[in-house]
């Protein structure tokens, strides 16, 4: 038996009295006609190993693309001013298309060869601060004439060289820094550090992924609180109150051909439906001139035509390619600054891996999967630098929040999302059209997503004895400092003065990253303040990893196509820190373990001990 999920044969779903098909409740069986498995709020609609029908995968992939759209579009637009591109929307759309295309490649690499969890890859805000710091240096400040739209000729060679030499400098710094991330991942350094990382480190790290973003999410939503509130209301209504309502849909099957069945539409597509309805309402209110047309008026950002210039100027087809802006250049200041962003990105990604595993019903990721995931993210940053996105790539926390809302954890859906990103990167006109989603709609969506991510981080404390004053202090102090220290450093950047510019940039980037501050303090205090393994939650944490690593973990985190289980199983290869381990003494035992995974009792339920994710 090979390691693919298609090797398992499961009984057909059970027919319930209300006419809705229901599958087994443990999250391992297949779906028929694309129907979710259970009405219970504690069960996933699709497990990580499930393969929904292709049409469900496409729509869910588009939903994930829309969820990540705000972050993907925001990064190039934030960098535009310091790249001297504030008056060149066409080049901005090229950067947006490039980051779509590279994000699609990196997503496919991560899902197929990396950590293998359903995590979307995209531009990282951890690289924005060091990038802006580098571009603010005297050598890279934009000339005064580039700030005057009347003096800018976007097609002149002089202007093109002005912005291209800056993005080439960013490319070189990102490519060099990405090599450090690949070394840390593929060498096993990050996996070695995981033995010292427990729930009291993971909880503040994940929580501080979203908590510091309340300001930006609130600012986006505050551009029109009415539209933002409606978006929030629709997402909550669909995902929580209407999740068990089955809608009749027309489907096609091999046996029954074309027929109607019931499908829990609101449970699977709450974000997509809410975005479409809010977007449509904004379009109607824009056409009827209900929203103000003055750029400074309240509610102007709710209009759907505020970014119309990008849509009209973008080409229908454009193929991004490596070195499209020229040969990258490298400077020491830029490399050190981006390395600080790489450190923050790795800390965030490790927290994202654990959060994603909890939401999709997967065991905690083993060391080899974490090593591989961080290494592949470094490879993604190298590709992003080569293509010239002006940014790197990392795991997207927003999409992990979407997993918690939709309860769809299938790996196949993220593969479809990666393909959608590739397509949007090539179809310049369609990709630019998505950039016209009104700001308050994106802000309302982010408020819901960030709330879910924060709750996922706090849920890691269930393994810890929270009656212990030691643990209360560690978690509370880490969270509070993760909010207070970055806030002070952002307001007083001139106080960080060591006399060495590169060191100042590294320190400033690290201290303004809340997840790094909180995670580091949690790591330091948890490993230095005396406490038993049971009190710290490490005993339960280890037991979960050991009990599940040889069963479901071998199926989730192993490489595809039998790599490491049927081929490339020599002892030399097994010594690589990122290579999956053979369980129970080799191939034969691995097959027996996989047979156990697929076994079921006569009632159609899996054996006891199946993993279950509870929110």
Terminal Cα span: 34 Å
**Counted beta strands:** 6
Strand content: under 5%
Structural class: mainly alpha
**Uncertain residue segments:** 1-42, 584-615
How are the strands of the largest sheet arranged? Answer: 1-2
Q: How many DSSP H or I helices?
A: 25
Helix content: 55-70%
Mean pLDDT over the residues: 77
How many separate structural domains? 1
Task: Report Rg.
Answer: 24 Å
Largest sheet, strands/sense/barrel: 2 strands, antiparallel
Categorize the overall geometry: globular
Pfam family, one: Xan_ur_permease
GO molecular function: transmembrane transporter activity
Protein name: Solute carrier family 23 member 2
Transmembrane segments: 53-80, 92-113, 173-202, 222-242, 263-287, 325-343, 413-435, 441-460, 472-489, 509-529
Provide an overview of this structure.
The two termini are 34 Å apart. The protein contains 25 helices and six strands. Mean pLDDT is 77; it is low at 1-42 and 584-615. With 615 residues, it is mainly alpha-helical. The chain has helices at 54-80, 89-113, 128-135, 157-186, 189-193, 199-210, 214-222, 225-241, 265-268, 270-287, 308-313, 332-359, 367-387, 397-406, 411-426, 428-434, 439-459, 469-491, 501-511, 514-528, 533-536, 538-549, 552-557, 571-574, 587-598; strands at 14-15, 21-22, 121-122, 247-253, 257-263, 394-395. It is globular and about 65 Å long. The chain has one domain (54-146, 155-528). The strands form three sheets. The protein has a two-stranded antiparallel ribbon with strand order 1-2. The chain has a two-stranded antiparallel sheet with strand order 3-6.
């Amino acid at each position: 038996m090979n390691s693919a999920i298609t090797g398992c044969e499961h009984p057909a779903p059970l027919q319930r009295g209300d006419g809705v098909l229901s599958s087994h409740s443990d999250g391992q069986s297949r779906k028929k006609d694309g129907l979710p498995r259970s009405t219970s709020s504690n069960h996933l609609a699709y497990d990580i190993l499930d393969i929904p029908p292709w049409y469900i995968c496409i729509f869910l992939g588009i939903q994930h693309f829309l969820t990540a759209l705000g972050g993907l579009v925001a990064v190039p637009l934030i960098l535009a001013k310091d790249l001297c591109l504030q008056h060149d929307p066409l080049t901005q759309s090229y950067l947006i298309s490039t980051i779509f295309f590279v994000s699609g490649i990196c997503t496919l690499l991560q899902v197929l060869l990396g950590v293998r969890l359903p995590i979307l890859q995209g531009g990282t805000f951890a690289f924005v601060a060091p990038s802006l710091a580098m571009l603010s240096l005297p050598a890279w400040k934009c000339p005064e004439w580039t700030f005057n739209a009347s003096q800018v000729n976007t097609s002149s060679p002089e202007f093109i060289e002005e912005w291209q030499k800056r993005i080439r400098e960013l490319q070189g710094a990102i490519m060099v820094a990405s090599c450090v991330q690949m070394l840390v991942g593929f060498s096993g350094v990050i996996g070695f550090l995981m033995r010292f990382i427990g729930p009291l480190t993971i909880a503040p790290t994940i929580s501080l992924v979203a908590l510091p973003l309340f300001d930006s999410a609130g600012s986006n939503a505050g551009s029109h609180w009415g539209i933002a509130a409606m978006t929030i209301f629709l997402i909550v209504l669909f995902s929580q109150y209407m999740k068990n309502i089955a809608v009749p849909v027309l489907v096609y099957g091999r046996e029954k051909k074309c027929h109607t069945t019931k499908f829990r539409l609101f449970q699977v597509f709450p974000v997509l439906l809410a975005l479409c309805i809010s977007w449509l309402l904004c379009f109607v209110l824009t056409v009827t001139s209900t929203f103000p047309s003055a750029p400074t008026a309240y509610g102007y950002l709710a209009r759907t035509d505020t970014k119309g210039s990008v849509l009209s100027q973008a080409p229908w087809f454009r193929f991004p390619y490596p070195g499209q802006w020229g040969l990258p250049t490298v400077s020491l200041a830029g490399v050190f600054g981006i390395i600080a962003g790489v450190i923050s990105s790795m800390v965030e990604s490790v927290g994202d891996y654990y959060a994603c595993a909890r939401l999709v019903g997967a065991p905690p990721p083993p060391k080899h999967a974490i090593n591989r995931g961080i290494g592949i993210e470094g490879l993604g940053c190298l590709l992003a630098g080569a293509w010239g996105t002006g940014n790197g790539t990392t795991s997207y926390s927003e999409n992990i929040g979407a997993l918690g809302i939709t309860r769809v954890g299938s790996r196949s859906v993220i593969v479809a999302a990666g393909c959608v990103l590739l397509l949007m990167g090539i179809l310049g006109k369609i990709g630019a059209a998505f950039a016209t989603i009104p700001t308050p709609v994106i802000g309302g969506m982010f408020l819901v997503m960030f709330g879910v991510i924060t709750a996922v981080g706090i849920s890691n404390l269930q393994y810890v004895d929270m009656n212990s004053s030691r643990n209360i202090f560690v978690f509370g102090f880490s969270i509070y400092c993760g909010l207070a220290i970055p806030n002070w450093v952002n307001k007083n950047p001139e106080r960080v003065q060591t006399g060495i510019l590169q060191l100042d940039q590294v320190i400033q980037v690290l201290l303004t990253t809340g997840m790094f501050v909180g995670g580091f303090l949690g790591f330091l205090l948890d490993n230095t303040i005396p406490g038993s393994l049971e009190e710290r939650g490490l005993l339960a944490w280890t037991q979960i990893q050991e009990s599940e690593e040889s069963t479901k973990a071998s199926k989730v985190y192993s490489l595809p196509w039998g790599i490491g289980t049927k081929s490339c199983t020599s002892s030399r290869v097994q010594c690589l820190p990122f290579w999956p381990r053979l369980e129970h003494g080799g191939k034969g035992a691995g097959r027996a373990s996989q047979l156990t995974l697929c076994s079921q009792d006569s009632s159609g339920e899996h054996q006891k001990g199946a993993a279950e994710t509870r929110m």
